[in-house]
C-alpha cells in the first residue's frame, strides 16, 4: 500500500450482483478515502464448495424460496439506491445457478496478470452483460465481445482467451480464491481491509459504511458527490 494508505482488497465474482454493487461503491470511494483498492477476481463456486462442508449446507440464497423472494426485492432496491443498473427478475436465479462463471473469471484473471489497467472496466462490462443485458457470459464469443468493448484488440483478446486454459491462470484464480477463504470468506463480495496490522473481513456490499468506520473514514452514502 502507498504511504499511510489502507490496503483494501475486494474479492469478487461477476456472477454475484452484490459484488457489482460493492465494486461500484468502492470504485467511487477509492479517491475519496485514503485507501489503496485492490481488485481480487476469485471464483464464487469454489468458495461455496469449500464452505459448504463447514456451514452445513452453505447453499446459494436463491435456493430458499422465501429468501429468493426477498433477494429479488432487495437487489432491486439496492440497485436503485446504489445507482447500479442491475436488472433482476425471478428467472435470473435459475440463470445464475445454470451459469458457470469460471471461464469469465479466468479471463479476468488473465487480464489482471497481463493488462491490469483493463481490470476495472473489463469486470464492469462483464457485470453489465450478465446483469443488465442478460447475456450468457460463459460463451467464448461473448467473452471476446466484452474484451473488444473495453478496447482490447482482437489479437490480444484471442490470446487472453487461449490463456484461460493455461496452468498459470488456473492456479492464480485458485490461489486468489483460497486467499479469500483464508481470510474467512464464505460468499461474495468479500472485502478485506488491512488496518493496524491485521486483516478485517467485511461480507456483502452493505457493510462498506462499517468498513469506513473501522479505518477512520467518513461514509458519504453509496453515491458520494
Can you give keywords for this protein?
52% helix; 10 helices; alpha+beta; globular; 225 residues; four-stranded mixed beta sheet; transferase; 4 strands
Description:
- The protein is α+β, with helices and mostly antiparallel strands and 225 residues long.
- It has a single domain, classed as Glutaredoxin.
- Helices cover 52% and strands 12% of the residues.
- The chain has helices at 17-29, 44-52, 65-82, 91-98, 102-114, 119-132, 140-149, 154-163, 167-182, 208-214, and strands at 6-12, 35-41, 190-195, 198-203.
- Strands 2-1-3-4 form a four-stranded mixed beta sheet.
- Helix 1 (17-29) links the parallel strand 1 and strand 2 (35-41).
- Helix 1 (17-29) packs parallel to helix 3, helix 5 runs antiparallel to helix 6 (119-132) and helix 6 (119-132) crosses helix 7 (140-149).
- The longest helix has 18 residues, at 65-82.
- The two termini are 25 Å apart.
Amino acid at each position: 500500500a502507498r504511504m499511510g494508505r489502507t490496503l483494501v482488497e475486494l474479492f469478487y465474482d461477476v456472477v454475484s450482483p452484490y459484488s457489482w454493487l460493492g465494486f461500484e461503491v468502492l470504485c467511487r470511494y477509492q479517491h475519496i478515502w485514503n485507501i489503496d483498492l485492490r481488485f481480487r477476481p476469485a471464483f464464487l463456486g469454489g468458495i461455496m464448495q469449500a464452505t459448504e462442508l463447514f456451514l452445513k449446507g452453505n447453499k446459494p440464497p436463491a435456493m430458499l424460496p422465501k429468501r429468493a423472494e426477498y433477494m429479488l426485492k432487495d437487489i432491486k432496491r439496492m440497485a436503485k439506491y446504489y445507482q447500479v443498473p442491475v436488472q433482476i427478475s425471478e428467472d435470473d436465479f435459475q440463470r445464475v445457478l445454470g451459469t458457470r462463471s469460471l471461464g469469465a473469471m479466468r479471463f479476468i484473471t488473465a487480464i489482471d496478470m497481463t493488462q491490469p489497467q483493463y481490470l476495472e472496466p473489463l469486470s464492469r462490462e462483464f457485470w453489465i452483460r450478465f446483469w443488465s443485458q442478460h447475456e450468457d457470459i460463459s460463451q467464448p464469443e461473448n467473452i471476446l465481445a466484452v474484451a473488444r468493448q473495453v478496447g482490447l484488440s482482437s489479437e490480444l483478446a484471442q490470446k487472453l482467451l487461449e490463456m484461460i486454459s493455461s496452468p498459470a491462470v488456473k492456479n492464480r484464480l485458485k490461489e486468489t480464491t483460497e486467499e479469500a477463504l483464508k481470510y474467512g470468506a464464505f460468499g461474495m463480495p468479500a472485502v478485506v481491509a488491512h488496518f493496524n496490522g491485521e486483516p478485517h473481513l467485511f461480507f456483502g456490499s452493505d457493510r462498506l459504511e462499517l468498513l469506513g468506520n473501522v479505518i477512520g473514514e467518513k461514509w458519504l452514502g453509496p453515491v458520494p458527490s
